């Protein structure tokens, strides 16, 4: 770049959105690359948007999302001063990093994990300390603990981890929390918490009530199916929320998103959401079992996606999926993340994997 700018920006990897469904003649294509909810928005949510939001889009939204904040506070048993909204949980995490870290500071997190982490940390001028995952895709807790030093300003735990779909146990989470100084925050990123069926998994809100330095981030994008509206939230000590709001994008959460979130929190909508989550979890378990029956040594999955570490074969394998109308999320040289989608899409995934197994492909785990 020829214009004067922050040189650190040149080191930031561009965020890569999941590719759209490939266009192929005569084949219905599916996008299973972005961990989106395959179900259409709930009718009650669409009606709320139509009747309560569209006629006010000429006005700025409530900047703090007061109604949503108050409803979330009631549901989680905290005060409204402990809840902050963001343009998706990604912006909540950005607020937190911008609040606590800058040049000379370090943020410790597992890797591979959510690919926005290095972008957010570098954007704040801080340094990422990436701790490689264990072979099964789970957090290397000993490595995370050993990476903490006097420059650490934040530790991030991703449960379940994106893209490996591994769960973090309560025991491991407590080990990290017991090792981190009480004046250093620990973020528990729970974007996929509703899909996490692992026994003994860490419960962010339970730990929040026990440790003074825990922040929990969740989202309406995945289980609630509001990815296109961009609304997430954080639960944090009131003084942390106050600091996060200072660095938040003003009016970042639209009124449409706020109305949709409120409608999604109504009892009937929550019941429907839970039914959809249960169906996706059941479908996930069906796929994992079928893959194992094909001979794949695949790890348990606890989100609405699963991980296949093909290593050096990742790009070749990705082409096989694209050829039959499936867009998956490839991480070059590492593996493929496949979202749980429509039944037909999932069956097609199994067909591709069966052919790959016959052709001698294997997983690097």
TrEMBL record:
Domain of life: Bacteria
Catalytic activity: L-histidinol phosphate + 2-oxoglutarate = 3-(imidazol-4-yl)-2-oxopropyl phosphate + L-glutamate
Keywords: Amino-acid biosynthesis, Aminotransferase, Histidine biosynthesis, Pyridoxal phosphate, Transferase
Root EC class: transferase
NCBIfam families to which the protein is assigned, alphabetical: hisC, PRK03321.1
Subunit composition and interactions: Homodimer.
The name this protein goes by in its record: Histidinol-phosphate aminotransferase
Lineage: Bacteria, Bacillati, Actinomycetota, Actinomycetes, Bifidobacteriales
Gene: hisC
């Amino acid at each position: 770049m020829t214009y004067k700018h922050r040189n650190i920006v040149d080191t930031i990897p561009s965020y890569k959105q999941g590719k759209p469904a490939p266009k192929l003649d005569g084949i219905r294509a599916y996008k299973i690359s972005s961990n989106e909810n395959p179900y259409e928005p709930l009718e009650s949510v669409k009606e709320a948007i139509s009747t309560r939001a569209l006629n006010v889009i000429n006005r700025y939204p409530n900047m703090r999302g007061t109604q949503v904040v108050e409803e979330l506070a009631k549901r989680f048993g905290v005060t409204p001063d402990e809840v902050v909204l963001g343009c998706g949980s990604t912006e909540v995490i950005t607020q937190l990093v911008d609040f606590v870290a800058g040049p000379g500071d370090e943020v410790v997190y597992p890797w591979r994990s959510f690919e926005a982490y290095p972008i957010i940390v570098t954007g704040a001028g801080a340094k990422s300390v990436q701790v490689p995952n264990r072979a099964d895709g789970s957090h290397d807790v000993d490595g995370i603990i050993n990476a903490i030093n006097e420059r650490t300003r934040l530790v991030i735990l991703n449960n379940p981890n994106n893209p490996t779909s591994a769960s973090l146990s309560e025991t491991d989470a407590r080990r990290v929390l017991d090792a981190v100084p009480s004046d250093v925050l620990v973020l528990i990123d729970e974007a996929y918490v509703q899909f996490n069926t692992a026994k003994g998994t860490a419960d962010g809100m339970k730990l929040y009530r026990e440790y003074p330095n825990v922040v929990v981030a969740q989202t309406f994008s995945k289980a609630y199916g509001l990815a296109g509206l961009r609304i997430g939230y954080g639960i944090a000590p009131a003084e942390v929320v106050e600091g996060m709001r200072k660095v938040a994008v003003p009016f970042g959460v639209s009124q449409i998103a706020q109305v949709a979130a409120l409608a999604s929190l109504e009892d009937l909508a929550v019941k429907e959401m839970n039914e959809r989550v249960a169906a996706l979890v059941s479908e996930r378990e069906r796929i994992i079992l079928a893959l194992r029956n094909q001979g794949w040594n695949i790890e348990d999955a606890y989100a609405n996606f699963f991980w296949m570490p093909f290593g050096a074969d990742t790009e070749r394998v990705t082409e096989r999926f694209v050829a039959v109308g499936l867009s998956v999320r490839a991480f070059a040289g590492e593996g493929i993340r496949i979202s749980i989608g429509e039944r037909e899409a999932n069956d097609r995934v199994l067909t591709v994997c069966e052919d790959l197994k016959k052709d001698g492909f294997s997983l690097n785990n």
